[in-house]
Amino acid sequence: MASVPSRAALLQLYSNTLRTSKSFSSYNFRNYFIRRTRDTFKSIQNEQDPDKLTRFYDEASKELEVLRRAALINGMYGGQKLVVEREGAVRLRGDT
C-alpha cells in the first residue's frame, strides 16, 4: 500500500503540471491544459480520503509524464503564433 501524499507533494505536483502546461508552444493547447490543471486540482482541494488522494496522486503523476512528452512534441512542431499571441505596437484611438 502506498503512503498518502503530503500537502507539499500535491502542491509540487500541481506546480510541475502547471509549469509543463505553460510550456506548450500552441496557444490553444497551452490554455486548455492550464485550465484543465487548475480544474483538476481544485476538485481534489478539500478531499480527506487517503485512498482517493493516493489514487489521484498516482494518476496525476502519470499524466504529468504524458503532458511533458506532449509539450516536447508540440514544441518541435509548433506553428506560427496566433494573432492574439503577437506582441506589437499598441495603437491609440487618434493614431493613423
Compact overview of the structure:
The chain is mainly α and 96 residues long. The protein is 62% helix and 0% strand. The protein starts with 6 loop residues before the first helix and ends in a 20-residue tail after the last helix.
Low-confidence stretches: none
Rg, rounded, reads 18 Å
Structural category is mainly alpha
Number of domains: 1
Our measurement of the CA-to-CA distance between the termini, rounded to an integer number of angstroms, reads 68 Å
Percent strand equals under 5%
Biggest beta sheet attributes: none
Overall number of strands: 0
Spell out the helices and strands N to C.
Answer: HHH
For the residues shown, what is the average pLDDT?
89
Helix content: 55-70%
Q: What general form does the structure show?
A: elongated
How many distinct helices? 3
